[in-house]
Amino acid sequence: MRSKRQVEVLLMQDIGELGKAGELVKVAPGYARNCLLPRQHAAFPTREALRLLDTKRKREAERMKQREGELAALAEAIPATNVTLEMKSSSEGKLYGAVTAQMIAEAMRRAGLDVHAQQVRLEEPIKEIGQFDVPVHVFGDVTVNARLWVVNQP
Question: What's the pTM?
Answer without folding.
Answer: 0.64
